[in-house]
């Protein structure tokens, strides 16, 4: 009796090694040539305390406060977050060397603080952020 050969036993197999080599070479190429973006942010660390009292007569400070209900006050006057820049510019027209101090409450929305910060920086107004006094939450 003759034995029959089973079909499929003679089929050739595909060698995957060269294709894997090409894939790894392409992966290395893309990793080496990729450019990585560096996001810019602003530094939220407060400056170190100084022993000298601030000289507010030569550089008056415009105080922008944001309370826990996200209401905005410019020098104790209530305003909307969209009108802060206009209020600050009106005050700076009388005292051009003045700087802005933002005092957000811990419960204030970060988006409001960032919006006011960006408005001041984009218009060349010196600005800094300080936590509200007595805000222990």
- Strand ordering within the main sheet: 3-2-1-4-5
**Percent of residues in β-strands:** 15-25%
Helix content: 25-40%
| SS class | alpha/beta
- Which ranges are low-confidence, i.e. pLDDT below 50, for 5 or more consecutive residues? none
Written description of the protein model:
- The chain is of the alpha/beta class.
- The protein is built from three helices and five strands.
- A hairpin with a 5-residue loop joins β1 and β2.
- The longest helix has 17 residues, at 17-33.
- The radius of gyration is 32 Å and the shape is elongated.
- It starts with 16 loop residues before the first helix and ends in an 8-residue tail after the last strand.
Characteristics:
single chain, 137 residues, alpha/beta, 5-stranded mixed sheet, elongated
Summarize the structure.
The protein is α/β, with parallel strands linked by helices and 137 residues long. The chain contains 3 helices and 5 strands, in the order αβββαβαβ.
List the helices and strands and how they pair.
Blueprint: H1 17-33, E1 61-66, E2 72-74, E3 77-79, H2 84-94, E4 99-104, H3 110-122, E5 127-129
